[in-house]
Amino acid sequence: MNSIWIFEDVNLFDLLCPHKFKEFQASHSFNAYKKSDYIYFEADAANKVYLIEKGKVKIGYYNEDGSEVVKAILSKGELFGEKAILGDIVRDEFAQSIDSNTSICPVGVTTMHELMRANQTFSFKIYKFIGFKFKKLERRLQLLLFKDSKTRLLEFISELCSDYGYDCEKSGDNIINHPYTQKDMASLIGVSRPTINILLNELKEENYLDFNGKQIRILKKTA
User: Fold this and answer.
1) Rg of the chain over all Cα atoms, to the nearest angstrom
2) pLDDT (average), residues 162-174
3) Which residues pair with 68 in a beta bridge?
4) Which CATH number is 95's domain given?
5) Poorest-pLDDT segment among 8-12, 137-141, 150-154
6) Same domain, 100 and 183
7) pTM here?
8) Residues 6+ apart with CB under 8 A from 145
9) What would the pLDDT profile of 77-87 be if each residue is shown by its tens digit?
10) Which of 54, 67, 81, 222 is the most buried (most CB within 10 A)?
11) Boundaries of each HTH crp-type domain copy (predicted)?
12) How confident is the model over 31-57, as a mean pLDDT?
């Protein structure tokens, strides 16, 4: 299956990153970040959107008590900061590199609007992409609020299957090659790192899945 990297056959990086366009090549450069570097903070000006050339970025916010809520962990080719396109003036979230070698392609909002005005079909796809992303975020937040930890994990695995899974013809199992560490997964479903390991092992004992590194295999059910 296609991940967000190719959304309905649209490679967002190829279409959006200004260095792909002659009129922007001379003035455009990539931004490099190390692990734990912030790309922007809550309340920063929202005047750019960003595409990930390589590495991983965590999107989240802090509750009143100072606890961190992780909204998304994004990887190569994905877009973030997109609320700036919709008219947001300040950020209501932070973006932080969680990889030791993250490279980001920044796109000014004015440049983005110019690209969108020049191509109506492309503009439609961008808005559809943003709607798709908001829908995924809303579903994840509902899980955090209303579901127990095991159900949250099962729903998250189902989401991974949609984004990164494919059928293994030999065994009939569903193979998911995803970009997340167990720590990433724990942050996304709101549990501790030890808890995610316990839950995965429970599902393994129940013969629901097997896992190794960044691969999850949902096992074919037998009668």
Assistant:
1) 19
2) 73
3) 62
4) 2.60.120.10
5) 8-12
6) no
7) 0.73
8) none
9) 788 999 999 89
10) 81
11) 147-222
12) 93
